Amino acid sequence: MATTPSEMTDDVGEATPLLEVSNLVMDFGGLRALDAATLKVGQGTITGLIGPNGAGKTTLFNVVAGYHEPRAGRVYLDGEDITGLPPHRIFARGLCRTFQIPREHASMSVLENLMLVPRGQAGERFFANLLRPGLVREQEAAHRQHAEEVLAFLDLSHLAHEYARNLSGGQKKLLELARTLMADPKLVLLDEPGAGVNPTLMGRLKENIERLNRERGITFLIIEHDMDLVMSLCDPVIVMSEGRYLMEGPPEAVRRDARVLEAYLGGQYAAAEG
Ligand SMILES: Nc1ncnc2c1ncn2[C@@H]1O[C@H](COP(=O)(O)OP(=O)(O)OP(=O)(O)O)[C@@H](O)[C@H]1O
Q1: 16-104+184-273 — its CATH code?
Q2: Scanning 57, 109, 112, 219, which has its CA 20 to 30 A from the CA of 174?
Q3: Backbone phi, psi, residue 179, to 5°
Q4: 241 lines ligand 1 (CB under 6 A)
């Protein structure tokens, strides 16, 4: 059965939702990209976020991750109000996002890309550097070890010293995922992880998301247009349309819901139904 945001509390149990977005409004000039968008993401879920082009999904990610300040509304992470915090502070609280177009540092190796992810290193603090250089070295070594573990977990160790520019599109998506893991995230927002990824790597990406969810308890919110990926990976699936929450439910219920079909009206969903 599909639910509304207020009913969803029961679905997630008594626990506070990991992410709660309440009545977000975001304008770009005269265009209202988010129109009182409200939704909740349950702890430990792999939640899908779908909707037609322009529904406001990426804008919602940008507001949640601190890249845009909303005109109105609130964002809560694990019950704490994070609205308007800058991206690095939100990141430090365990909310990480990836981008539709990966943002790797092309002329650095894969390992260096991971080591760049900030973790509040003492080395970045001038006085700590002067007073305790040994601490800086220890932290760098620990950071490197963590990066190597992340690469091993994602089966990317063989690419550690490859320039990021030489990776395929799918490998860059895995690198994006790896970068989020450097921050020990609670919640990862993935923006179209399947776009431009070949079927083999897509399978790997999916398995890795499932393993991270199962073994590390990481919650995922995933924007995706590939309906096969959404249907096989995500539960629940939230649907947005015209800047607002439309409905949510298990993938099969969402797939059959008349409101969803109407929202996509002749778009890729109808095509996928074929
Ligand atoms: N930086 C921006 N400046 C102006 N308009 C923007 C900006 N970002 C998004 N928009 C507009 O806001 C609306 C919502 O866009 P958004 O990218 O959030 O939708 P989406 O659901 O992610 O779409 P898609 O599935 O195509 O990525 C669209 O009309 C878009 O053109």
Answers
A1: 3.40.50.300
A2: 57
A3: -60, -40
A4: no
Bridge partners of 182? none
How far is 140 from 128, CA to CA, in rounded Å?
Answer: 13
CB atoms inside a 10 Å sphere around CB 90:
22
Query: What residue type is assigned to position 125 of the chain?
Result: R
Strand partners, 97: 189
Q: What is the pLDDT of residues 127-139, one digit of tens each?
A: 555 666 666 677 7
How far apart are the CA of 174 and the centre of ligand 1, in A? 24
Here the tokens at position 182 are 């450097």
56 lines ligand 1 (CB under 6 A): yes
Query: How is the chain split into domains, by residue range?
Result: 16-104+184-273, 105-166
ipTM exceeding the 0.90 mark? yes
- Hey, what amino acid is at 17? P
Q: Kindly report the pTM of this predicted structure.
A: 0.83
**Contacts of 7 by beta carbon, 8 Å cutoff, 6+ apart:** none
CA atoms within 13 A on the CB side of 138: 7
* Contact between residue 177 and residue 149 where contact means Cβ atoms under 8 Å apart: no
- Pocket of ligand 1 contains residue 170 by CB under 6 Å: no
Centre of ligand 1 from the C-alpha of residue 215, in Å: 34
